[in-house]
Amino acid sequence: MKVVAQGEPINVPSKKTESGLTAKCMIRLKELGGNYEDEYICAMFGNLALCKFAEGNVVVATLRFQTHESNGLFYQDVVANDIVKINF
Q1: C-alpha distances out from residue 20 to 12, 23, 46, 48, 87, Å
Q2: Which residues of 61-83 are buried (b: 16+ CB within 10 A; e: fewer)?
Q3: Residue 17 β-bridge partners
Q4: Which residue, of 7, 13, 45, 65, has the greatest Cβ tally within 10 A?
Q5: CA distances to 47, 54, 65 from 1, in Å
């Protein structure tokens, strides 16, 4: 995939850390192949959220797709579990 954009990390509540906070960052990834390939807005958490990827970087990403329901509405979340930059 190719990195289209990345936001700045913020601290969000977490039940999995001692401090009760963890870093979260959003990244936009696009599949390789052309202008009309699929794109994903992904959340990155923890140490991965603190990594910076430049626009245009080619990366390999492990994505987790999940859904949740809130007040009768369903939402889909995409979480990047791991991202590795490919060097050419």
Answers
A1: 8, 11, 12, 17, 36
A2: beeeeeeeeeeeeeeeebebeeb
A3: none
A4: 45
A5: 20, 13, 16
